[in-house]
Amino acid sequence: MSMLYHSQRAMRAKRQEAMRRGVIAILDIGSYKTSCLVLRFDSSDELRPTDGVGAMAGQSSFRVVGAATTRSRGVKFGEIDTVQETERAIRTAVQAAQKMADMRVDHVIVSFSGARPRSYGLVGEISLQTGTVTEADVARAMAACDVPDIGEGREVLHAQPVNFSLDHRTGLKDPRGHVGNRLTADMHMLTIEAHAIETLLHCVKRCDLELAGVASSPYVAGVSSLVEDEQELGAACVDMGGGSTGVSIFIKKHMIYADTVRMGGDHVTSDISQGLQIPLPDAERIKTRFGGLVATGMDDRERIELESDTGDWEHDRRSISRAELIGVMRPRVEEILEEVRAILEDAGFDHLPSQRIVLTGGASQVPGLDQLASRILGNQVRLGRPLRVQGLPQSTCGPAFSACVGLALFAAYPQDEWWDFEVPADKYPARSLRRAVKWFRDNW
Amino acid sequence: MRPLIIRRGSDIPRDPAPSRWAYRVQRLWLTPVFRSLLRVGLPAFVIVGALGFYVSDPANIRHLQDSVSDLRRSIEDRPEFRVNLMSVNGASPVLAEEIRSTLAMDFPVSSFDIDMPALRQRIEDIRAVERAEVRVRSGGELSINITERSPAMIWQAREGLWVIDAGGERVAPLMARPRLTYLPVISGDGANEAAAEAMALLAVAEPLGERLRGLVRMGERRWDVVLENGPRILLPADNPVPALERVLALDDAQELLERDVLRVDMRDGDRTVLQLSPQALAELRRMRDLDATMGERNG
Question: CA neighbours within 13 Å on the CB side: how many for B285?
Fold first, then answer.
């Protein structure tokens, strides 16, 4: 745990250095596409919040100067599967983005969706020595959280304080300065499989970049596609990607739960490919061009040619109706949404004051998804698009880029994490004290 | 599995990913320091190095100088800068001929090759020239404007007869200007240095007319006026002009110079001393004796 603490702190230091330098790259490694944005942070006060004008959710302080998207290679279920291939995809994206930005970036913040994230809610309670809560007290309260057994080979990705309680008052965002006796900190911890981070680190290092931060893509997709009210009152963001579908639940502007369904748009494509016996690229093309989820009478009459070049005339001259295509796609999407519903039920989404569900991600662009989703997930479903940020090209404004944009926002206004607070002195491992004593003994 | 041997021209699409080295080179190129170094530093270094290498060989420098001078030559030799003829204005034909022979210019010549100050100096070195203006006119004409010295006197010097101007500068030997013999003559060492005084004396001595033979500078300090048939007027070193005027007044009144006088000595300001010729002196004495005897006889 302390190793993680140090590595996270090192990443934070790199992020701050990148901020000083003013340039940072955002890399979203998905199963279908890898996209890279180059952000330039201006120190000018061009768009500072003034009277009556908000800070525009923090996206005003940076500008996207380079953007590039390439097809992902070697990524499965949101995890890096073939290192060399993924490295090539990263290089392609980074190089194109650098070329567009006409500047070199050294620091990169990465998001990915896979590696089986698991959420934990932790509670830490301390009694305050002095009446007033100080930052050290907050750190102590968080250090007092009893960490559950997260399992072998897992790492903490996010550990964010989401709520503070002081005596009988709860729902405090920032307890510092309050007077009380007992301080309770609620923390949300997200763990993922350690090998995913290690592979990612290896990939990034092979591309001569420095990892300045890692974020879970369901989380950052929620940051960008949920509007402020939804984040405040409670909402779930369903980020439907190529290889996995991420679910994140927000309330009071904090993520309180995240999980992924290891199914996505690629599975729909492979269903089409298998069901209609056509190659995968053709299946992808047919899905994006003719795909749908709700069949109407019109769809029976719309024929889709399945041209191929096998030499078998019968096979090469097939055609299907759009209703048939919908019939192939719909069960898989339904299955994904059922899984999402199961996750939301597990998370206790029903108990939130507002049960808004926002569908985003590349696979959410299937026509008719909102109708299907409202049938499965409930009434309050909408399709979400990421927030608009300065300088983002038109081609990267769609829902497929919500994780990207969210990551940019995350880079500009990072959430407080556990490791942003100083470790209380008494929690330092005893070993280092022993080493200090030994050093004294050896030298005097 | 992908085939291991990629056949050229096969429809296997090229890998769009940059190779690791291409990626690194591009990142290096995007580094501002490296970029400025390569864009400014390297060309500057190459230029300076090439120049240094070229200059380090003296043969190259010589070649460079030769080519520069060739270029210069070709510009100078253009017809626009060519000087074809010389005109001498304000000089008498004799002097003009002398100037032409002195300069001995070889036309045509480029105007860049004419050293104008030296040319002017050479012209002004000719004695008869008081001042010269030299310029190249358009149309390739070298124009020389001369102000001549005007001959005023003939100076009989030890080395010969010279025509000199009013300031005493030699204009030419008299042999070269035989037509100037009408000029008054002065002689003696240093006579030319006191030419201004001589001119004043000559102006005063105008009434003497044909009788005046000339002025002689005595001991480089005073003047003698030499008249026809030998009589001399010895003038003082200081204020010779009033002294001569007095002599001329005496001449006017008593026809002094008509008489048989060898010298009229005006050197002593208080008195005028006359030296008579021996015959005159004898005559004077005879007259005096006659007067005496007449007186004794009468007395």
Answer: 6
